[in-house]
């Protein structure tokens, strides 16, 4: 009885200290969050300013006049809708290809053991240690010899699969119970039907995670589209942002407004898939 009373008293005395610790923790996190939001809010502010007021001192966080016409000028200054179409087409094609080809390879490694599978998988993982800059020139030479420069093929085909995607899905497939697959085999299901009707529906969190990572990577890619495209009609949004700069000046309100339009779809995709994203990350950390 005395022990119970002592424990209760201890919990009561510990509550004020815990409350102060929580207040301090949330206060620090709030300050850090606000500091990360400041550049984003400054972009919004700059996109609504007149061009001459961008470099005023002291700087004005809230514009004296709100020029929403800047966003209309973005579409007049550049073929922004063409850039958007190119980016959407390339991004969705790569996302679909990554999910399809990476899941097929991951299923083979996780559920169809064959001689040398572990060695081949280790080789796949080893390629993750090679910086992408190292493979840029050889890949460009291949694209040039295939006569794919300035085409959608040059922007899509080199990224239809990845070692990271195969590793991510393989680890998730290992966490799925095999009993359902064994029952399907007894019923006469083929391996492809098991993969398509059982494995993929159960792997939505991992597939959503891979899709989000791929979407963000392709949507924000600048270097590769810049290298393989020569005409304005084939440019993506990231490369198209350069039209608001010239040799001597930059139209910062239009530049910031266009950058916000480019960032918005990435934020939207992440917010709608956040539940699958977090769940997929936690589950793929299970033993393989």
UniProtKB/TrEMBL annotation:
Signal peptide: none annotated. InterPro entries: MetI-like, MetI-like_sf. The chain crosses the membrane at residues 20-44, 83-109, 121-146, 152-173, 194-219, 252-272. Its main location: membrane. One of its GO terms (biological process) is transmembrane transport. It holds the Pfam family BPD_transp_1. The keyword Mitochondrion does not apply. One of its GO terms (cellular component) is plasma membrane. PROSITE patterns: ABC_TM1 (PS50928). Residues 84-273 form the ABC transmembrane type-1 domain. It comes from the Bacteria. It is found in: Cell membrane. Keywords: Cell membrane, Membrane, Transmembrane, Transmembrane helix, Transport. Belongs to the binding-protein-dependent transport system permease family. PANTHER family: ABC TRANSPORTER PERMEASE PROTEIN MG189-RELATED (PTHR43744:SF12), ABC TRANSPORTER PERMEASE PROTEIN MG189-RELATED-RELATED (PTHR43744). This is Carbohydrate ABC transporter permease. It comes from Paenibacillus montanisoli.
């Amino acid at each position: 009885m005395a022990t119970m009373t002592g424990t209760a008293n201890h919990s009561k005395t510990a509550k004020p200290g815990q409350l102060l610790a929580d207040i301090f923790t949330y206060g620090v996190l709030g300050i850090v969050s606000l500091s990360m939001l400041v550049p984003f809010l400054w972009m919004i502010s700059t996109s609504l300013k007149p061009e001459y007021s961008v470099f005023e001192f002291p700087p004005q966080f809230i514009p004296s006049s709100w020029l929403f016409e800047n966003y209309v000028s973005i579409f007049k200054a550049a073929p922004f809708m063409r850039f958007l179409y190119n980016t959407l087409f390339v991004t969705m094609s790569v996302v679909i290809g990554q999910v399809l080809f990476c899941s097929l390879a991951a299923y083979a490694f996780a559920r169809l053991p064959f001689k040398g599978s572990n060695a081949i998988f280790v080789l796949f993982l080893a390629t993750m240690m090679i910086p992408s800059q190292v493979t840029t020139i050889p890949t460009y030479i291949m694209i040039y010899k295939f006569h794919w420069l300035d085409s959608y093929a040059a922007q899509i085909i080199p990224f239809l699969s990845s070692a990271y995607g195969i590793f991510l899905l393989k680890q998730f497939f290992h966490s799925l119970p095999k009993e359902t697959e064994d029952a399907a085999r007894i019923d006469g299901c083929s391996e492809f039907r098991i993969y398509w009707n059982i494995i993929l529906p159960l792997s939505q969190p991992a597939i959503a995670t891979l899709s989000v990572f791929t979407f963000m990577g392709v949507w924000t890619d600048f270097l590769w589209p810049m290298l393989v495209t020569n005409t304005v009609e084939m440019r993506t949004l990231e490369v198209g942002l350069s039209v608001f700069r010239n040799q001597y000046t930059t139209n910062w309100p239009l530049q910031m407004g266009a950058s916000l339009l480019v960032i918005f779809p990435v934020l939207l995709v992440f917010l709608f898939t956040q539940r699958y994203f977090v769940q997929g990350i936690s589950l793929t950390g299970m033993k393989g």
